[in-house]
Amino acid sequence: MAFTEKYLVALEPVEIAGRSLKRYHVTADPAGIEPEVEKAAYALLPELLPPPDGTAPAGFVVLHRGGDTGAYLNAYSWVWDNVLHFGGAAAGQPALDCPDDDPTRFVRVDRSWIGCVWELAPLEHERRAWVRHMLTPDAPDLSGYLADALRSGTT
Q1: In sequence order, what are the residues at sequence separation of 6 or more whose Cβ sits closer than 8 angstroms to the Cβ of residue 73?
Q2: On the chain, which terminus has fewer CB atoms closer than 10 Å, C or N?
Q3: pTM, rounded to two decimals
């Protein structure tokens, strides 16, 4: 399988279930991810987030539209001050126990996988941003962290 870059789009953060989440969309389609896929993914998102633990309620989400019928939702949340919690879901991918090939029927994925090569592109940026804005300053700067997103471009 030859690797081909995909488009990565950084979107404005959203608040879901009391957690501020940066958003990244990944797709091979320059038009972006279909609105109905995005809506279905974000409807399941609260189920992928951990309960509050005293850490600033923040994280990031990667929504990936595969080249086939699949769509993948990765939710990364900061917990325990410096640990990244992961919750994943998929739609349209029967190989991952999805009920059918409908890219709007998201189900939780019970695997230890944290993302594919295209979905992992934001991870290093997010680690550095968390350290830079939340762990290094005398006082954590959550708004600075939320404003510090990986630039849109390719994966």
Answers
A1: 41, 44, 45, 48, 61, 62, 63, 64, 88, 89, 90, 91, 106
A2: N
A3: 0.96
